[in-house]
């Protein structure tokens, strides 16, 4: 019977993570499909460089608003209902963008899709983290990021296969996962930690007993939640000195995840490669290779976060991203677009994608969902998502302009420098969270041993 209960709880947790992570699939598809659609939209709507960046960036602006408004909504309505609201917005935005006949409709629809993406990016990782056991939390939360890159990969394949068809069908296919997310969330339980925070103790106990190996483990975890719980904290509490290390680590990763250039590659790789002399079909195939690389890297990262650890994964992979970008920048500068040179360029951009996605992109939502105290987890994750989308907005609105000003080679050299700075940041400020309960991480914040440097100082002092 205990073995059966353990398997049943594990299966339910997996099912919850898969359905919730469908929000990540929509996240990836709706952000990635613009890469291929932009080639057709530019011709049909006579887009300039500026207007192309506005159409691309509208979804990011919406995401920035969505992630900020999702925090108070999720604390009031619950994590599950907030994800359902996001699913409805996904459906509305997809219908409007599919039938858009003017630039303003494209922008408005992608703004609505952005609201949904921002809400999903803020709340789905929290929902999964709060319902997962500590020993599997990394893998299950990374399922969200895996869904994101699968969505991006599907969008790249779709863009290539429909390159002679219409951009409307490219966007319209997004209605399928949006419907799955909305219907699936109806049958999932609320987060037990949110229920405990709102006084629904017996409801929280019931959920934990369904997703843990034994009733004893569920009851012990619930008691830890109750013991560590404070009243819901206002946003200003994130400024308290004892919480600051969590803010620095999580927001730093969120900013660097974008400023290191990964979404510049996702959004504009076909445009950059087509502009550099590659054919349109070849440029779109490059995006397919990037999508496959992202999927492989995220699957690997999902394994590594619970085996190597979050911090060690980033420290091991980021140097590879730096080297790949240096090679890519050099190949653009010497103009190697034919023969072996072209293959080196593709290998370099695929290598960068794997090293960057497998480290920062895997860690961003996981670390953000782990490091904050329960009383401010919603607002803290909102800050993480806002930082991510704010940086993404900057990247989406400036990448083509950067390429025009610095050239593709100079742009990739700039991203190489930022990736090197990201490596130093992780070494200094990001702690290891593998295998530690959310309550234990909160305790390390309170006793001042959260950041790696502070932890090392405490160990030296103890000796």
UniProtKB/TrEMBL annotation:
<keyword id="KW-0472">Membrane</keyword>
<keyword id="KW-0813">Transport</keyword>
<keyword id="KW-1133">Transmembrane helix</keyword>
<dbReference type="InterPro" id="IPR020846">
    <property type="entry name" value="MFS_dom"/>
</dbReference>
<comment type="similarity">
    <text>Belongs to the major facilitator superfamily. Sugar transporter (TC 2.A.1.1) family.</text>
</comment>
<dbReference type="InterPro" id="IPR005828">
    <property type="entry name" value="MFS_sugar_transport-like"/>
</dbReference>
<keyword id="KW-1003">Cell membrane</keyword>
<dbReference type="GO" id="GO:0022857">
    <property type="term" value="F:transmembrane transporter activity"/>
</dbReference>
<dbReference type="InterPro" id="IPR003663">
    <property type="entry name" value="Sugar/inositol_transpt"/>
</dbReference>
<dbReference type="InterPro" id="IPR036259">
    <property type="entry name" value="MFS_trans_sf"/>
</dbReference>
<dbReference type="InterPro" id="IPR050814">
    <property type="entry name" value="Myo-inositol_Transporter"/>
</dbReference>
<dbReference type="GO" id="GO:0005886">
    <property type="term" value="C:plasma membrane"/>
</dbReference>
<keyword id="KW-0762">Sugar transport</keyword>
<dbReference type="InterPro" id="IPR005829">
    <property type="entry name" value="Sugar_transporter_CS"/>
</dbReference>
<keyword id="KW-0812">Transmembrane</keyword>
<dbReference type="Pfam" id="PF00083">
    <property type="entry name" value="Sugar_tr"/>
</dbReference>
<protein>
    <submittedName>
        <fullName>MFS sugar transporter</fullName>
    </submittedName>
</protein>
